[in-house]
Every structure is written in C-alpha cells, then in structure tokens.
Amino acid sequence: MTTPTSILNIQITSSDPDPSRQGQGGAPLILHTTRGDLRAAYHESPAPHAGVVWVWGAYGGLEGPADGLYARLADQLTPDGITSLRVDYRQPRVLMESVMDTLAGVSFLKAKGYAAIALVGHSFGGAVVITAAPLSPEVKAVVALSSQTGGAQNAGLVSPRPLLLVHGEADTRLPPQASRTIYLWARQPKELVLYPGAGHSLTQCKEKLDALLKRWLVEKLLV
After folding, report:
1. β-strands 117-122, 50-55: how paired?
2. What share of the chain in percent tops pLDDT 70?
3. CB 27 within 8 Å of CB 44
4. Measured between alpha carbons, how far is 180 from 178 in angstroms, rounded to an integer?
5. Does residue 61 surpass a pLDDT of 60?
6. Residue 53 contacts residue 192 (beta carbons within 8 Å)
7. Burial zone of 45 (CB within 10 Å; 0-12 exposed, 13-18 middle, 19+ buried)
8. Strand 117-122 and strand 139-145: pairing?
9. Which CATH number does the domain 39-222 belong to among 3.40.50.2300, 3.20.20.80, 3.40.50.1820, 3.40.718.10?
10. Cα–Cα distance measured from residue 113 to residue 49, given in angstroms and rounded to the nearest whole number
11. CA nearest neighbour of 162 among 181, 192, 142, 138
12. Whole-angstrom Cα distance, residue 108 to residue 150?
C-alpha cells in the first residue's frame, strides 16, 4: 500500500483544556484541527527530552489495552524525561483519518520542542502507527501491540526506525500470526515478542509488558 502524501493534510490551529475529563490521567486537552477536534491527554515530563504518541484500537479511546496501559506508562516515563500525548481518533476505524490524527499528535509534540518521538498503537492502532511513522522525520521508534495486518503492509518503510511487535499467543481476535507476518514484511531493526497465555488486550502479561515498553522506549529515545 502506498500513501499519496498530498491527501495527508491536518494542522492544529489551537488547543484548550477539557474540564469534562479531569481525573482520567494527564492533562486533558481538546486539539482543534483543520479536520475537526481531537481529544487528547498530555503527560509532561519535568525534564523533557523525547515524546511518545499513544493511539488505541478501532473504537478509539485514550486508555489503551492491559488495564489502562497508556496512562500508566505515560506517568511512569515522565521521570525518565519522556513526555506523552494520548490521542483519540476523530473517525475510529478509518485508517488514513486516524493516521492524520497520529501525525497531528506528533506535530503537537514537535511544536513543544521534541525532535525524537515514538509511536505506540494497539490492534487497529498498530496499523495506524506503522503507516504514520514513515511520514514524519520526528518519529524515531514504533511499537505495534496485537496489531492487525490490514494497513500494515508498508511495515518495511518503518526502517531505519526500530519496530517492536508484541502479541499474545492466546489472542483469538487477531491471532499472533498477524504480528509474525508484519515482522516478515518489516526490515531491520525489528523485534517480535510473543507472550504465552495472553489475549488480545495483553492483560495477562501487563507487568511484563510495562517493563518491556518502559525499557525499550527509554533505550530507543534517549540513547
């Protein structure tokens, strides 16, 4: 799948706090864009050096898999100098619109001064971040969790950025063969981690997943 860059046109015009979502982790924001409003949550490090944009599955949302992985990891990464932006889709299940939402998140962090940004996506979001990564020079690393193959055929274009693929071996919604296939499509540097007994949400391996992602993101963004 090739993506004409001419169709990728989204700009953030302004942002406002979102008081309706207080207490859901981070600083809740509404990003006003040229294609509509984006809900987001901003977790700013007190000594920032790099950033992460987190996107979820086909239904959108901000929490992520594994019992709220995104907010949890975003907070855990701030002491390491990594700021996070969790982004909800304007049009869930629409791949290229979701790619533009992800790129808008990258633009938001870039405007804050971040030159090294990682993308993390789960399920449908795995294809979103794989598609988005080659379109932004600020993206330095990509993580696809329990990813679908649809929309991920250009995984080879993620290189030379490192790509981490994670899947549960007991996933019945998107079997682990999906990540194995993406791994074959991808070029080095790439890693595939499979967790026995873990399902699509990766809840059964959340402690191991937290540790893996924290280590991997710090290593790829801060070295």
Report:
1. parallel
2. 97
3. yes
4. 5
5. yes
6. no
7. middle
8. parallel
9. 3.40.50.1820
10. 9
11. 142
12. 27
Rounded Cα gap, residues 48 and 85, in angstroms:
13
Chain centroid, CA 167 distance in Å: 15
What is the spatial distance between Cα 130 and Cα 128, in angstroms, rounded to a whole number?
A: 6
DSSP string spanning the chain?
Answer: ----GGG----EEEEEE-GGGTTSSSEEEEEEEBTEEEEEEEE--SS--EEEEEE--TT--SS-HHHHHHHHHHHHHGGGTEEEEEE--SSTT-HHHHHHHHHHHHHHHHHTT---EEEEEETHHHHHHHHHGGG-TTEEEEEEES--STT-TTGGGGTTS-EEEEEETT-SSS-THHHHHHHHHS-SSEEEEEETT--TT-GGGHHHHHHHHHHHHHHHHH-
Measured CA angle at 38 (ends 33, 89), to 5 deg: 120
**143 vs 165: CA distance, rounded Å:** 6
**pLDDT average, residue stretch 141-149:** 98
Domain residue ranges in the chain: 39-222
Q: How confident is the model at residue 7 (pLDDT cuts 50, 70, 90)?
A: low
Q: What residue type is assigned to position 140 of the chain? A: K
The answer to whether the predicted template modeling score (pTM) of the entire model surpasses 0.90 is yes
Burial class (CB in 10 A: 0-12, 13-18, 19+), 197: exposed
Measured in whole angstroms, the distance separating CA 154 from the mean position of its chain's CA atoms is 16
pLDDT of residue 3: 44
